[in-house]
Design a protein that fits this description.
The structure holds two protein chains of two kinds. By secondary structure, chain A is of the alpha/beta class. Chain A has 16 helices and 14 strands. Chain A has two domains: about 30-150 and about 290-385, Response regulator (Rossmann fold, 3-Layer(aba) Sandwich); about 150-285 and about 395-415, 3-Layer(aba) Sandwich (Rossmann fold), CATH 3.40.50.2300. Chain A is about 45% helix and about 15% strand. Chain B has a domain at about 20-260. Helix content of chain B is about 70%, strand content about 0%. In chain B, strands 1-4 form a two-stranded antiparallel ribbon. Chain B has a two-stranded antiparallel ribbon with strand order 2-3. Classes of the chains: A alpha/beta, B mainly alpha.
Chain lengths: ~450, ~350
């Protein structure tokens, strides 16, 4: 009896091993551009990770439905991390071997770990709207692409916005701004930029960390009630955001004075709070909720209508869905650009894709043609600037939906550029990296 | 038939005190070690190295440390993750603050710092025991989480709170490729496992076991509980601290306190319980079970699904992984409460009688 069950277990295990090996080789043979999809559909941050992943995968399906990148079809495989760094590293190693084009880990912690690995494996890392802020400097961080914006951009624009509402940045003198942040590399990233701005304008910065996963914030909001800051910046993710809004409601802190980062400004963050979050604003990474955009309609028509949609239909066009979709688009456009140089209709390697991402030039006309009219502004990267654009808008929750409430902002390069150069220089020194010269960049 | 010690006569005390008294055992273990050093580097691909073998080796080392404390000395601890963190951050600080600090020395110093903290947090064990001690060691966990998040000095004032190391090398041998990392960790594990095995056979290990079995009786026969308990905390924390250093330096390369959260402490304790309390071999089994099984399930379930033509979503796989993993833990604990190591020794007993059980 025991032997039989043992034998059974062993044979099942053997089937498992051989089939894993078999799928690996099948991927390697096919002439397809492979996109690894690192996601978290479970765990504490699933509510936010899910829509992002659905948008990401749906866009890849959309590209395939439209005929691929110059005829090259896309293949992809998901790997679940649960937002844990060690599982993220495991996923990276697993999918790397299948010919990964570009990684987008959607976690600052995993980004930090992969930043050490990407140069060795020669696979670019896109971190659209997150990751290391100093990785904007492509001379040092050759493989990181914090496209569209970093947390320093977010912090900078948030202060600009507060200044504008107060009637000028000089009015910030003597004010008090509190930062309620997720106590992880993600939440700590904006602090240097905010401190820089605090020095410039003479406001007081109050730092209030919230431990993972962010459901326990009573003490934090008690402190806010005591110190009565003029504004609260919310740097949360997942359940932390809705908890913060509920606590703000409970302590009576006006939601109009709260501004979230773009990861704290999506439907899952405010839906549960509903009317209680009315007046709360958040930065946007260019786009907001865009169910009316052409690309969202394309997805519904070419992917969902054929029963191939990844998530629920209602989700298409929501904030995080669009973020995932745009992230995928940036990766795909990197490959398309690389094909212009290395041969159209060919499968690009990680190294070639890196060149494509570094020379990305998405003009408004191109974006409009792809269905991103009104959603995005132009993105142009270079060797020294791996970010490509720093356009930010603010949108406000009216109790039922997000609506834009500000004009376009851009981060102040005069403030941020020296910080980026200083921090990346320190990193280069620590890691003994020689920054690339403009001549090396041209290669 | 093959596994029988007939005809192996011990003619000296040294022969009687060998780690493996049966020749077949000795040959088998040496063959496994030789295969791990020579065979595996040629057979295994990069994914297995980086995602499975290296984490397995490092966590086996940590589990070994926890087993010395929990399994041999009977002091239950929930602070193992904290001591890993202390080892990692202390090694990091020694490594970057002192110019030209050799890697191995930095790791060992990290282990020593961890041992020091282990003694400090072990002091409550002199007064409280059992579940109460578990709660007391949990304090170490929360304290370390707090310290490494808040005290900027430990992270070299890194703005994000994440630290990273690179350019690892030992006497000119740079540890870059997965094979080199694997061999580096394997060497540590083999040396430390040998030390652990010998410690448990020596006077100190016997003291720990006496304390574990009945501390009053142990005290009566002249064992000092303070010395025995604190030495167990120190040695255990040293092992765990070195494992923490390896986890940060070799496996992750860049880490934050979340890598050593309370989940890690629980994971290590489970490894020891499932593998077998008070067994060196059990630490390896436990680590293998906890490290490899979830990853295996994660890859095996979609493959199994496609075998039957069903596509399983990523979320479903991840949920199923937890369900199956949990039920296997319950299953093994019911079938063999003494852990996988006990199953192994039962198999050996049977093998001795085979093929004529009577």
């Amino acid at each position: 009896m025991k032997f039989r069950s043992l034998a059974l277990a062993a044979s099942i295990a053997a089937i498992g091993l051989t089939s894993t090996v078999a799928t690996t080789s099948a991927h390697a043979q096919a002439k397809e551009q492979f996109f690894p999809v690192i996601v978290y559909r479970t765990g504490a941050y699933a509510a936010n990770g899910g829509p992002w992943a659905n948008g990401y995968v749906d866009y890849l399906k959309l590209v395939n439905a439209k005929g691929g990148i110059n005829g090259v079809k896309l293949s992809f495989e998901e790997c679940e991390t649960g937002y844990a760094t060690d599982r993220g590293v495991e996923c990276y190693e697993r999918l790397k071997g299948k010919g990964a084009t570009v990684f987008q880990p959607l976690s600052t912690g995993i980004t930090f770990a992969l930043t050490e690995k990407a140069p060795v494996d020669k696979i670019p890392l896109i971190t659209a709207g997150y990751g290391r802020s100093e990785s904007q400097n492509g001379a040092v961080f050759s493989w990181n692409f914090p496209l569209l914006g970093t947390y320093w951009v977010g912090a900078d624009v948030a202060i600009q916005h507060i200044g504008k509402l107060a009637g000028g940045l000089d009015k910030l003198n003597g004010k008090k701004i509190a930062l309620v942040y997720h106590d992880s590399p993600y939440g700590k990233e904006p602090i240097p930029a905010l401190q820089e701005r605090a020095k410039m304008h003479g406001f007081e910065l109050q730092l209030l960390p919230v431990a993972h996963p962010g459901v326990e914030q009573k003490a934090t909001w008690l402190q806010i009630r005591q110190s009565k800051p003029d504004n609260v910046l919310l740097w949360g993710w997942g359940v932390m955001n809705s908890t913060a809004l509920k606590e703000a409601q409970a302590t009576g802190y006006p939601r109009e004075k709260m501004i979230g980062i773009w990861w704290a400004g999506a439907e899952p963050d405010v839906k549960d709070v509903g009317a209680g979050a009315k007046g709360y604003s958040a930065l946007t990474l260019q786009h907001g909720a865009e169910p009316g955009s052409k690309v969202a309609k394309d997805v519904l028509e070419l992917v969902h209508a054929k029963g191939q949609g990844t998530g629920p239909k209602e989700e298409v066009g929501s904030v995080l869905y669009m973020r995932g979709l745009i992230s995928a688009m940036l990766g795909v456009e990197g490959v398309r650009k690389a094909q212009e140089r290395y041969g159209k209709g060919k499968v690009m390697t990680g190294e070639q894709t890196r060149w494509g991402l570094e020379n990305l030039n998405l003009e408004q006309k191109t974006l409009d043609g792809m269905g991103f009219a009104g959603v995005m502004r132009p993105v142009q990267t270079s060797c020294l600037d791996h970010m490509g654009s720093s356009w930010v808008r603010v949108h406000t929750w009216d109790g039922a939906k997000w609506g834009f409430s500000s004009d376009w902002y851009q981060s102040d390069e005069k403030v941020l550029r020296p910080m980026v150069m200083l921090a990346s220089g320190k990193y280069a020194e620590e890691k003994k990296i020689t920054p690339r010269t403009p001549e090396q960049c041209k290669q | 038939m093959i596994y029988r010690e007939n005809g192996q006569f011990k003619t000296s005390y040294t022969a009687d005190q060998q780690i493996f008294t049966i020749a077949q055992d000795k040959i088998f273990v040496l063959a496994v070690i030789a295969f791990a050093f020579i065979g595996i580097p040629f057979l295994v691909d990069e994914y297995l190295f980086r995602a499975i073998l290296i984490p397995f080796l490092i966590l086996a080392l940590a589990a070994l440390g926890v087993n010395l404390l929990v399994g041999y000395c009977g002091q239950i601890t929930l602070g193992a993750g904290a001591f890993m963190a202390i080892g990692a951050y202390a090694a990091y600080n020694f490594f970057i603050r002192i110019d030209g600090m050799p890697l191995i020395v930095a790791l060992l110093l990290g282990g020593l710092s961890s041992a020091g903290m282990g003694i400090l947090f072990g002091i409550p064990s002199l007064r409280v025991r059992g579940l109460y001690l578990a709660v007391a060691t949990l304090a170490a966990q929360f304290f370390c989480d707090w310290a490494f998040l808040r005290i900027q000095w430990f992270t070299n004032n890194s703005s994000s709170g994440s630290v990273s190391v690179s350019n690892l090398n030992v006497m000119g041998w740079s540890i870059e490729s997965p094979v080199e990392k694997y061999l580096f960790c394997l060497t540590f594990l083999v040396v430390f496992a040998l030390i652990a095995k010998n410690l448990t056979r020596a006077i100190i290990g016997r003291q720990w076991m006496a304390i574990r079995d009945m501390d009053v009786a142990a005290e009566v026969i002249g064992i000092r509980p303070m010395y025995a308990k604190l030495s167990a905390f120190a040695v255990s924390s040293f092992f765990v601290g070195v494992a923490g250093g390896l986890w940060g330096f070799v496996h992750l390369g860049s880490w934050e306190p979340a890598a050593f959260s309370v989940d890690r402490s629980f994971q290590l304790l489970f490894m020891v319980i499932i593998g077998g309390l008070g067994s060196i071999l059990g630490s390896f089994f436990g680590a293998a079970f906890i490290v490899i099984l979830p990853i295996f399930l994660n890859q095996f379930l979609p493959a199994l699904g496609s075998f039957f033509g069903i596509a399983i979503s990523t979320a479903a796989v991840s949920h199923a992984e937890l369900i199956i993993f949990g039920s296997l833990i319950v299953f093994f604990l019911i079938v063999e409460p003494h852990g996988l190591a006990r199953l192994w020794s039962i198999a050996k007993e049977k093998l001795r009688l085979w093929p004529f059980p009577h």
